[in-house]
Each structure stands twice: as C-alpha cells, then as structure tokens.
TrEMBL record:
InterPro entries: A-glucoronidase_C_sf, GH, Glyco_hydro_67_aGlcAse_N, Glyco_hydro_67_C, Glyco_hydro_67_cat, Hex-like_dom2. The lineage of its organism: Archaea, Methanobacteriati, Methanobacteriota, Stenosarchaea group, Halobacteria. Transmembrane segments: none annotated. Residues 135-464 form the Glycosyl hydrolase family 67 catalytic domain. It comes from Halococcus hamelinensis 100A6. Residues 465-687 form the Glycosyl hydrolase family 67 C-terminal domain. It comes from the Archaea. One of its GO terms (molecular function) is xylan alpha-1,2-glucuronosidase activity. This is Alpha-glucuronidase. Belongs to the glycosyl hydrolase 67 family.
Length: 702
C-alpha cells in the first residue's frame, strides 16, 4: 500500500528471489539515465522506486557511464548517449515507430550492462516498464535482445469522469479520483494512475463523460449528464485539464476531452450547432486554438452524437461524416484527432443493424484525422455478443475497437469476470473482409489513426477497480492494446505474478479462477446460447444493470410461448447479411450457427434440438445451473488460498465471491423460472424450482 492508502496493483516490485537478485543487482544497481525531458524524469522516478523494491537496495543514478562498477543499466536515446550508440544499431532504433523500444544485454568496457533505448522519450518509458515487468516476473536479464513496437497506434482509456460530481459513468469503484474542485492542485494518485496506464502502454485518456447532454432532452442517461461536457472547454476548465496533462505527459499519455455536439450553443449561446454553418466552423476552430494554447499535446475530442439523447448532426439533417469533419478541420492544424462513436441508435426495430446502416455508406467520407470508434459488438457490451459487422466493412476509414473494461453487465465492482478471453475472441475474429485470414485486430493496427479504446474502470476505491481481481482487466486491456497477438495465458500469468508473487499454488489458483470466470458469468446471466439484455434496468434514472430481470426486455430476447431468440437471419431483421461470407451463411443457418450465439441470430422453438440432442430449453437450464456450480467452485478455490496471500486481499476477494455466489443463484433462479413460465417445459433433472417466490425474484434494493 502506498502512503495515500490505495493498492499498488501490478506495480508492487516485491524483492526478487535470491539468485536472480544477485544478477539483477549486478546490472541494475547502478543506473545511467538521460535527463532533460518530462518522460525521463518519470523513468528515473520509476527506476528508483522499482529497484529499491526488487533489489532491496536503492540504486545509484548517474548522468554519465559509471566506472569501476561490475555493471549498470543504461536508459536513453542513441542521440543523447554515446554509450548506447556504441551498443545498438542506431539505424534499427531510428526505424522504430513511436513508442517502440529496444532492450539489449551488452558488455561495455568490461561491465555487464542492460541498455534500454528508443528513438522517442515515450519509447524509453515503455522500454523501462518492459524491463521492470520482466524482472517482476523473475525472468533473467543477462541475455536480452528485445525489440517491440506497439501494434496499435492509439491505445486509449475512456475514463468518462463526470466532472464536478465526483462520479464516473459506469464507474463501480467509488467516486472519481479526479478532484475537479481542487484542480489545478494535484494529487499523488494522479501520478500513480498515469504510472499504471503507461506501464501497460496506454497512450491516451479521455477525461470526461460522453454523456454531456443538454438537460431536458429526455433520455435514461440524463441523471449522469449535467454541465460537465462543456465546463471543461472554458478557460477555468482548461486550466484544470492542463494540470492533469502535466502529470500524464511525463508518462506519454495524452489527454482528450469528450465534447457535446452543441457546445457552441451551450458555451456561447449560438442558436445553432449546424456543422455546415460557417460561424459554427469558426467557433470550433477558435476553441481548438484555445485548447492547444493551454495543452500543446492535447489528443483531441471524443463525441457521442445522436445517441441516447445526445445532440448530433441529425439535429440539422447532416450526416455523421459532415458532423465529424467540422471538428476534424478545427483540430487538424494542431495535430488533434476526432474520435467519433458509432454508438448511434435511432428507431430501428433491431438495434443491431443500426451502426452498420449509419456508417458503412459513409466510408471514405471522413477526414484523415477522424477515428470511428465502434463497440466490440452490435448492441452494448453484453456478456456475449457477436463481433460488430463494421469491422471489415470500412476500408476507407480509421476504426477503433471500443471495449468495456468496467463490468457494467458482468457483475460490476463485485463479480470476478475476467474479460481478456472475450477481447481475444473479438480481436481474433475472422471478418473474411479480404478472404480467409482477415482478423479484426488487423483493422485496428492498420494505420496511425486506428486503435483500441477501453471504457475505464478506475475509481477512488483502494483497489482502484472495486475488486482486486478486476485489476486484471485493466492490465489485460493495456497489454492487448499494445500487442493483440499476446495469448491470454501469457497476459494472465504476467498479471498474477506481478500482483500476487511467485508461489506456484497461488499462480495456478488465481489464473484458474480468472480463466473460468467469464464462461460462468455468460452461463448464469444468459443461459449461454447468445441471449442478451436479461438484466434489470429499473426506472429510467436507475439503470441498475446488475440484477436479473428478463421480463423487462421482450424485444431483446424474444421469449414467447413458441420459442426464444431474435430472428436476425436473412428472413428476419437481416442483420446477418452485414457479415462477409462465409460468416453470414454460417450464422444464418441454426444448424451451423455456433451454439453460443444461436439465440442472438435465431428465434427457435423451446424444443429445438441442438447438435447433441438436448433441447434449447434444457440447455438453457443446464447452463444456468452449471454457471452457479462454477462460481461456487471459484469461491472454494479462492478459500484454499487463505494464509498464502495477504489477509487484506484474501478477505476482500473472498467476500466478493460470497456475494457472487448469491447473485449467481438469483440470476439462475430468475432465468430458469422465466424460461419455464414461457415454455412450460420442466427441467428434465427436476432442478428448476417452481415456487411462486422463485418466479418473482424481486430486484435488489439499491
Ligand atoms: C450504455 C451504457 C451507458 C453509456 C452508453 C455509451 O448505454 O449503459 O452508460 O453511456 O452505453 O456507451 O455511450
């Protein structure tokens, strides 16, 4: 725990094991690092902190190569450090993309050294964290020859703070860490947040919420809106953002702001925000200048338009390309970028078709500094959804994949639900856009303006994420955004070792719990056949999304006496036709559609037989029951760790798993009763409790 009493997450830097420690001391007790830029200040701070932990000795920091030492660590660019230029191929370093780095173990004038180098200072930050990760994982450092570049140029956290309310959109880890009233005064916690982000390669953070609507435009999200969206664009607001930027800059993280599309009206009383109005164009250009005067490395604007009550170009009969481009023109002279969300939904009967119908026809019409940010699935971060049809449909546009790190629909700050396997599935999904072997991840790594965005998870809670185990999702998000080819096991193993140390029993158990958690959640929250939106929403202003309440959502799961599921086939809403062949054909036929997505694409009779002869309704029952069994098992596996990890974290997770079991049972009981009521087909194992009380599980009181 650090002084302010919150967790260090994966940056604990526990002492290395004996033998390893000696070799680490030889090469890292003396550190020769450049000075001069904000990033290098951060590098030196991190090395001081990390080496003190790992080596159990404070390192000596030098501004020239130390003599008469057995070895040392050198961090800098070849331009600035001759010793480094002597040790690596300078051409190779110069060829590295922004953020790329090179690490080599070398002998230099008889000393055993490790060199961390890059062509940019930001690359040095990532290289340093990479070396520290290796050491925290107990890997040798005497034979290193590593070259890395980030696969995705943009790796952004949508933090989505509600300024001045101390809350975060879909934040389940307590109040916001940003104290806007006190900013520009800074807190140590901002530095630690930036460290966590940079350590996994994140290079942008959208500070404020996308829900920045004009009060009175009636939507369920009104309660989280308010004045936030435009306040930060005023002089006072920008001063606060500039203060945060000064912290993030040291770690190579650029700040972004969400803006309300009607900002000219809100801030300066314009009577229109029409993107084709010259006065509006000029307003945005002026605003961009003000922003860049205050924050020269500002990243750009994020916009949620024409969605859930937000303003947008449709207010003026303009397209989304016209809408985005006016902002893009304003940002372009400053090197800024517009992130335009594809989360638009109007009055379509099947919401799944909307994003593609809106944006695919606009391919090629967005300016070069516009990134279209698309949720991973067509609906909204459900435990399981098919992959968005826009990936692979817009060759002429920079796309970013939007993932949700915060667990809005997967147990919030309470349940253990490890999302890395879900994200891997999305990234590896073969769109077939250019024939077989066209994984979605290639779309996001394709160009400078493409990338990955994650809806943030961090709050003031001492755990940062509400549940210690949910830290793994933040870690995994960054690692995959940097390198989508990493496999889940590698990411999990890295996180567990850095977070809980090297005890093999702990590593096995925690990794196993994470591994099994997502399929269990999918089973007890959906029945595992592709159903979505089975959760409780409540009154418009509540939006609970934690408890079960399938009866609220007939349009999303399609349960009737005859069957269940939504017909999105060619004969139904036609959504399936937005995929390339042979994906479309595979999903279109219930015989070939993968079972886990079956009811997303098909409305089927309750007694429809699956490949192994089990009926749909029986499989739904079985999955709901087995999901609960797995969660009970996770709880027991965790309990076996008592005494093997510190009490604080042990008890915290144990308590949450207790709650998860209870909650999973509520989901199971509600869902199976719901399936039974519609199908009137009993569970063949006689497990479905058919009591009145079970049929009407009341929503939890908040
Ligand atoms: C969901 C979520 C909202 C969020 C929205 C979005 O609807 O519940 O809180 O604002 O997605 O992504 O914009």
């Amino acid at each position: 725990m650090s002084l302010e009493s919150y967790d260090d997450c994966w940056l604990r830097y526990e002492p290395a094991d004996g033998e390893r420690r000696e070799s680490y001391r030889t090469r890292c007790e003396n550190v020769y690092a450049s000075v001069g830029s904000p990033e290098l200040g951060a590098v030196r701070d991190e090395l001081r902190r990390a080496m003190t932990g790992l080596l159990e000795r404070e390192p000596h920091l030098w501004q020239h190569p130390p003599r008469s030492v057995e070895g040392f660590l050198a961090v800098g660019t070849p331009d600035e450090m001759e010793m480094i230029a002597d040790s690596v191929s300078t051409d190779r370093v110069a060829a590295l993309g922004d953020g790329g780095f090179r690490i080599r173990s070398v002998e230099w004038e008889g000393a055993e050294c490790v060199v961390v180098t890059a062509s940019t200072d930001r690359g040095l930050v990532y290289g340093t964290f990479h070396l520290l990760r290796r050491m925290a994982n107990g890997h040798p450092i005497d034979d290193l020859d590593v070259t890395e570049e980030p696969a995705n140029h943009e790796r952004v956290i949508d933090h989505w703070d509600d300024p001045f309310r101390r809350s975060v959109e879909r934040g389940y880890a307590g109040p916001s860490i940003f104290d806007w009233e006190r900013l520009p005064d800074l807190r140590e916690r901002y530095v630690d947040y930036a460290r966590l982000l940079a350590s996994v390669g994140i290079n942008g953070v959208v500070l404020n919420n996308v829900n920045t609507k004009i009060p009175g435009r009636g939507s369920a999200n009104e309660f989280v809106s308010g004045k936030a969206g435009w306040q930060l664009l005023t002089q006072d607001g920008l001063e606060k953002v500039a203060a945060l930027a000064s912290v993030f800059r040291r770690y190579g993280v650029r700040p972004y702001l969400s803006v309300n599309y009607a900002a000219p009206m809100l801030i300066d009383d314009y009577d229109t925000a029409d993107p084709l109005d010259p006065d509006v164009e000029e307003w945005w250009a002026r605003k961009a200048e003000e922003v860049y005067d205050a924050i020269p490395d500002f990243g750009g604007f994020l916009v949620k338009a024409d969605s859930e009550g937000q303003n947008g170009p449709y207010d003026y009969d303009r397209t989304h390309a016209e809408g985005a481009n006016v902002l893009a023109r304003a940002l372009e002279p400053h090197g800024g970028r517009v992130w335009w969300r594809a989360f638009v939904y109007a009055d379509h009967d099947d919401r799944a078709v909307q994003a593609y119908e809106t944006f695919e026809p606009l391919d090629g019409e967005f300016l070069d500094n516009v990134t279209l940010q698309v949720k991973n699935g067509p609906i909204d971060f459900q435990p399981r959804e098919p992959v968005s049809t826009l990936f692979g449909a817009m060759d002429g546009t920079d796309l970013a994949c939007e993932l949700q790190i915060t667990q809005e629909y997967t147990g919030q700050g309470v349940h253990t639900c490890y999302l890395v396997p879900q994200w891997k599935e999305v990234l590896d999904f073969d769109t077939h856009a250019s024939g077989e072997g066209s994984p979605a991840k290639d779309v996001f790594s394709g160009s400078e303006g493409a990338g990955i965005a994650g809806v943030g998870v961090v709050g003031e809670d001492p755990t940062w994420t509400g549940n210690y185990l949910s830290q793994a999702n933040l870690y995994g998000f960054g690692r995959l955004a940097w390198d989508p080819d990493l496999d889940t096991e590698t990411v999990t193993d890295e996180w567990v070792r850095q977070t809980f140390g090297g005890d093999p029993a702990v590593i096995d158990t925690v990794s196993g719990i994470l591994h099994d958690s997502l399929p269990a959640t999918v089973d007890y929250e959906t029945g595992g056949l592709g159903l979505i939106h089975m959760m409780y929403n409540g009154e418009a202003r509540l939006e609970n999304h934690y408890d079960p309440s399938p009866a609220e959502w007939p349009g999303y799961h399609g349960a009737t006496e005859d069957g269940i599921g939504i017909d999105r086939t060619s004969g139904g809403s036609g959504y399936v036709g937005q995929y390339h062949e042979p994906v479309a054909e595979t999903y279109d036929d219930p015989e070939t559609c993968p079972e886990e997505l079956l009811l997303f694409f098909h409305h089927l009779p309750w007694e429809y037989e699956l490949a192994d002869g089990t009926t749909v309704v029986q499989r739904l029952y079985d999955n709901c029951f087995s999901g609960v069994e797995v969660v009970r098992d996770l709880r027991e596996r965790w309990q076996a760790l008592a005494g093997r990890i510190d009490d604080r974290r042990y008890r915290h997770v144990a308590e949450r798993l207790e709650e998860q079991v209870v909650q999973a049972e509520r989901w199971r009981d509600t869902l199976v009763a719901f399936f039974y009521e519609h199908s009137e087909i009993p569970d063949e194992h006689g497990r479905v409790p058919l009591t009145e009380s079970n049929r009407a599980v009341p929503p939890r009181e908040d």
